[in-house]
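call fold(seq) -> C-alpha cells
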Amino acid sequence: MESSLRIVPASSSKSASTQDTSNSLGLHDTLQYGPRSLAAEVQSEGGLKGRLENWEATQDNLKLTLERNLYGMHAPMRRLMERRIVANTSHMPGAPQTNLHLDIMMGRDETIEPADVFLGIVYHMHGDWALVRHS
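ret:
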C-alpha cells in the first residue's frame, strides 16, 4: 500500500526522447540514460488508457490511506487481511466462480458490469467487440 492521497491515477511515465538524451555529438548517450527503446519512441498511446486501468487501484489506495490517517495503521491492515482471507476461500463445486463477499468488501456490490449481466461472458477483446466465454 503506497501512502498517497492521489484521487486520479498518475499519468504513465514518459520515456525520454532521443533529443532529450543526446550528447554533444547528437547521439543517444547509452551510459547515462540506458539503452534506447524504439518501441517507447514510436508508441503514440495516450495516457488515458493507463489511467483507466489503474483507476480502481488508485481509489482503493486513497481509501486505505485515509483510513490509516483517521484510525491508525491497524485499520487498513485489518481490511487487507480480511480481503485476503475472503479471496482465498474455496467455492462450491457446482456454483459459478463468483466471490460476492469480496465484492461487498471492495464496494463493488452496487455496480453492474457486463460480466454480471452475461454470466462471465467478456465483451472487449483487442479493440473489437466480440463475445468470448470464460472457461
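The first strand starts at residue 121 and ends at 125.
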